[in-house]
Amino acid sequence: MERPRTVSGMRPTGPLHLGHYFGVLKNYVALQHSEEAYFFVADWHALTSDYADPSNIRENITEMVKDWVAAGLDPAQCVIFRQSAVKEHAELSLLLSMITPVSWLERNPTYKEQQQQITNKDLGNAGFLCYPVLMAADILMYRPHGVPVGEDQLPHMELTREIARRFNYLYGENTFPEPQAMLTPAAKCPGLDGRKMSKSYNNGIFLRDTLADIEPKVKTMFTDKNRLRKSDPGNPDVCNLFPYHVLLASPEEQEEIRQGCTNASMGCVDCKKRFLAHLAAFLEPLQARRAGLSDARVAEILDDGNERARAFATRTLDMVRSRMGL
Ligand code: TRP
Description:
The structure is a single chain. The protein is 55% helix and 7% strand. It starts with a strand and ends with a helix. Helix 8 crosses helix 9 (154-171). It is mainly α and 326 residues long. Helix 9 (154-171) links the parallel strand 4 and strand 5. Strands 1-2-3 form a three-stranded parallel β-sheet. The protein binds tryptophan.
């Protein structure tokens, strides 16, 4: 029986943290059972912004695949591959660039925002401007109905649909179905300091963190800033820790913690202890799986996935080339 198809990728920019897990990766793990799923390491996309110092990319690729498999992606259930190993993505990106107006790329909100916010890198390169065309190629290649991504990717998804529509208009209806973003049901996962969890803010809890790494991090987490003493009633809705109980504790325990906080019977220190226990229980099986994964096993997973992705990509490109008159 044919399953609906989905595809998604992540840039190998460093170790994955809880924000990645609850924002996107958890969705990948669920989808591998219901969909024909393609998940890839977007190493070309990493180069669009990190071209000046690519020294970590290779290691990051291997480590990211380990994080994925540790989190529950099963290479027997989905296709795990590397973007740069399936050259068809580059060819489709080139062909799509023929029909993509530069103005669409320049007005992309993500592009403008990152140009302004990222000041330690020169993002005036053509590759960075064309980031969304490559992303559209990654997606449309597999003609999926949906793409599991975080909210930050919505402008890119919109552009992908615009490119698909334009292709269909020029070269034939229903070449590319218009793919929808599949967002994870609202998962709030703030960083240790309350800002968005991000490697560049240095406020993350990583999937590969040991208990010794995590303990001091949790100690420094903000709770309700107005709660100075244990005898003050707290407010879980402004606490930086409570969203984690929502992700990791049972509904009954969440309610118990909410009560304990608001009636001042449970202090922040105890609340953090509970969080640590849940976090350790969550990370333990991930890390056990990770420990059993050698670099050689990752290479094998990617070799196999690259081949399966290529088999699909070849068929799409045959059709695209011929529709574009080549
Ligand atoms: N832009 C995505 C990110 O930063 C990575 C990505 C590249 C991607 N190509 C993709 C995601 C295709 C989904 C589908 O996370």
